[in-house]
Design goal:
There is one protein chain. This protein is of the alpha+beta class and 148 residues long. The protein has a single domain (2-115), classed as 2-Layer Sandwich (Chloramphenicol Acetyltransferase). 30% of the residues lie in helices and 11% in strands. It starts with a helix and ends in a 43-residue tail after the last strand.
C-alpha cells in the first residue's frame, strides 16, 4: 500500500491481489497423482482504503480462498470449459484495467518441487528464472541442506 502511495503521490487507487489456489485436491473427480499441468484458480478480495487493516485484509483473503475452492472445484468435470472461460473473462477485465494496481501472489508451498525426480536425483534447489509481469510476490518453501 505504501509503495502504491509513493508511486502515485496520492491516496490509494483500487488494487487487486490475485492469489493462486491449487484446486487438485478439492475437485470431486479422481485425478492421477502424477497429472501434469496447471490446475488452479484465482480469487480477488476487495477492501476500501478507509477500512484497511491487516486483520481485516487477512480475513478477506481467507474468505476469498475458500469461496473459489467451493465454487470452482465442484464444477470441474461437468462444465470445466465454461468455468475456465468465466474465470478468464473475469480476470482479463481486471488485468486490462489500467486504473487498477494488480499484484500477483502465487504460492508454491504445497507443490512437491523438491520431491520430483528428473532421472538424476531430486533437486537440491528450486527457483524461477523470471516473471514477465510486474508486482509478483512468490511464496515458496525453502529446503535447508545441512552438511555434517
Amino acid at each position: 500500500m505504501e509503495a502504491s502511495r509513493s508511486n502515485l503521490g496520492m491516496s490509494l487507487r483500487p488494487s487487486v491481489l490475485r492469489h493462486t489456489v491449487n484446486l487438485r485436491k478439492r475437485v470431486t473427480l479422481l485425478l492421477p497423482e502424477n497429472l501434469a499441468g496447471n490446475f488452479m484458480g484465482y480469487f480477488t478480495s476487495r477492501a476500501e482504503e478507509s477500512l484497511i487493516d491487516l486483520k481485516d485484509l487477512a480475513s478477506k483473503i481467507r474468505k476469498g480462498s475458500e469461496q473459489v475452492k467451493e465454487k470452482y472445484a465442484a464444477k470441474v468435470g461437468f462444465d470445466s470449459k465454461e468455468t475456465c472461460q468465466e474465470l478468464e473473462d473475469h480476470y482479463r477485465d481486471l488485468i486490462d484495467n489500467e486504473d487498477i494496481d494488480n499484484y500477483n501472489c502465487p504460492s508454491f508451498c504445497r507443490f512437491t518441487f523438491y520431491e520430483t525426480h528428473f532421472g538424476w536425483g531430486k533437486p537440491a534447489w528450486v527457483s524461477f528464472a523470471s516473471f514477465p509481469i510486474k508486482n509478483v510476490i512468490v511464496v515458496m518453501v525453502h529446503r535447508m541442506i545441512l552438511s555434517l
